[in-house]
Amino acid sequence: MFKVLEFWAVWCDPCKRQTPSVQEAKEKFGSYMSFERINVDEDIETSNKYGVRTLPTLIVLDQDNKEISRKTGAMDRYKLFEWIESLY
Q1: What domains lie within the chain, and their CATH numbers?
Q2: Residue 47 has what pLDDT?
Q3: Who contacts 16 (Cβ-Cβ below 8 Å, separation ≥6)?
Q4: Over 90: is that where the pLDDT of 36 sits?
């Protein structure tokens, strides 16, 4: 099962715009992958571990927790779904 890490911040307007799309993706793809929201202001260690410098950032990890894909910047639901579907 893949895992999606969603890096965001309260003050990030693009993050706020993308959140509903990520929630829809979670509902649609939840049986194939898990989703974890990471607030970069509260979890600096994880943000640094993955080298997150731009928000929002979505990182997909494989079952061994190795990064297999990354997207930065806000995506609408169609681009988000297309990206996720391309990973299968």
Answers
A1: 2-86 (3.40.30.10)
A2: 96
A3: none
A4: yes
